[in-house]
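Marked as duplicate of an earlier ticket. Keeping the data here for the record.
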Amino acid sequence: MQTEKVIFSPLCVCVCVSEVAPYLRGGGAGQQVVLEGNRLVLTCLAGGSWPLQYRWTLNNSNVTDWTPQYRLFLPSLKRTDAGQYQCMARNRMGAVIHRRTEVQVAFLGNFTGEEQRKTVTQGRAAVIIPPSLASFPRPVVTWYKDGQKIIPNSRIAITLDNQLVILATTATDAGRYQVEAVNEMTGENVTSPAVYLSVSGNRKTFFFLNKMWWKC
């Protein structure tokens, strides 16, 4: 944008042009959540005298050089592309910086680790910890035993960390345990490697019973 001032004189007409420093147009988006693999388009809205140039940063590191292109286009977003984006516009009169836009990438990874075997003494508590899983946002987790969904009750609980806790285990608690994670934003789901739980007999009880039997 330029400001023109017209001066009339008996001999000629003079037009004086004054240049305008860059200024912001609009506040920009404060936060965006984009699915992994989708495209990302960010726009740097600025006015001022032409030519204007633009530069984009991600977490304070340059991702573009100075360019006349005011849009940042990423055709296929990766998890590592998440962060704080910011643009700067400049011309011969100065520069202006847009406020930051936080970009979050929604994704669901895979469970780490392999199948495990765990043994607990009958009557004692068993704690089954799910394998590590990378995801954004946090997935919805469901535990299964031998393919059947586990419903928490007074003896079985699921903690805030998605650990499965079984109090006062019995022989019927033995089996194959798996956890399913669902990312409701991406629509994806993954199932963990199995944990095979065995419940051993209470040796003290057996010893006591055997001793009583021999005594009789």
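See parent ticket for discussion. The chain has one helix and 22 strands.
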